[in-house]
Amino acid sequence: MIVGNWKMNKGPKEAMTFMQAIKGKLPDDVISVIAAPALDLSTLLTAAQGTPLKIASENSYFEEAGAFMGESSPQVLGDMGVTYGIIGYSQRRGFFGETDAIINRKAKALFRNHMTPILCCGENAKIRTDGKTDEWISGQINDDLTDLTAAQVATMSIVYEPIWATDTGQTVTLPQLQTVAQLIRQTIAGLYGHDVAQQVHILYGGSVDTTNIRGIMAQNDIDGVLIGTASLDPASFLKLVHYNNIND
Known about the structure:
- 45% of the residues lie in helices and 14% in strands.
- The chain has 248 residues and is of the alpha/beta class.
């Protein structure tokens, strides 16, 4: 599962140009996803018809409608045909104060409206230095998945974001990545059983590009990646979704 996360980049015209560049070039054996600003979603959904590309929202509210100025309705997103919704991204947690309780409500709203959550979790530098990574990651997952059913969780993707690496300028090693990915799968297994844990897609949401994606995807408990900057260029995105063809 390869997810391009545009954040607050590109408008509808740029989104259309991007789609024209990748149309007919996506693999059938990879779940290819673009998460885009709300203003681009209608354009992308129209352009993606007849292609394997799935579209994700970068944010949505936990209520379907009401006086919630500036928010995106999960009901409208679902009716439009959006497939996935990112929740729990570190910048939403940090910049906008989203708590695990809010993220849990957003997960339920996405499921109510026939979309699948892509849930992000991760620890900062202090938590890692204090040796509390396992406790923190497991706690986030436990709280974010409260009252979700096994059938729902089995369809989800969970992204590991190493916030500590961004904080310190360090690079996550492949063994460090696999250790946390394994922890995530074990946490799901403890909550919902082995079969559900094996169905969940575990993604890496650090700095991913054409130089490291093959090593990341080779890890036992990694099923995909959430890509930022490298997904903005259509040629780069195509290389990443065809990662098996990248030369070592």
